[in-house]
Amino acid sequence: MYRLDVFSGMSKDNVNSITNLYYVNGAYEDIVEIINRNSSVCTGELYLRKRGVALHRLTRYSDALLDLENANLMYERASTLFTLSDCYEAIGNRKKALECLENALRLKDDDYKAKIRLAALYVSLGREKQALDTLNYLDYVLSESEKTEDLEK
């Protein structure tokens, strides 16, 4: 792959730029390694979140959960909560996945794909009425937006 030894002793800005580039190219192992090699400057929510997302992409869910939970304690973001929900669901903890997804939707309530996933989690937990209510709400919101678009034409 790449010569990662040249990526030790970097500044925060350089680590951020390089890991963004690697993310676009799907080099998740390299992201984890670069952040680990530069742990003295890679502190805080941003780097915990970046490494957690990379570990999630690598299906290393237990490792990802540790970083993402710590990042979420520092700064609550919908995107972090969505990824936490994915991780918890992947390891079979649907109740915790649901909790994270509900918290994410509290922060970003217009994510319709996440609402469909929420309905699926409700079904998997035997909460069919909540699933149906969620889907009915989604159907209503989407049909109202179509009506608005038709009026604007």
Fold and architecture overview:
This protein is mainly α. It is 75% helix and 0% strand. It contains eight helices and no strands. The chain has helices spanning 12-24, 28-37, 45-57, 61-74, 78-90, 94-107, 112-124, 128-152. α7 runs antiparallel to α8 (128-152). The model has no long low-confidence stretch (mean pLDDT 89).
Secondary structure: helix percent: over 70%
From the alpha-carbon coordinates, what is the Rg to the nearest angstrom? 19 Å
Shape: elongated
How many beta-strand segments? 0
For the termini, the CA-CA separation is 52 Å
% residues in beta strands: under 5%
What oligomeric state do these chains adopt?
A: single chain
Summing up helix and strand content along with how strands pair, one would put the structural category as mainly alpha
Separate helix tally: 8
Care to give the gist of this entry?
The protein has 153 residues and is mainly α.
Give keywords:
single chain, 153 residues, mainly alpha, 0% strand
Write the SSE topology.
Layout: H1 12-24, H2 28-37, H3 45-57, H4 61-74, H5 78-90, H6 94-107, H7 112-124, H8 128-152
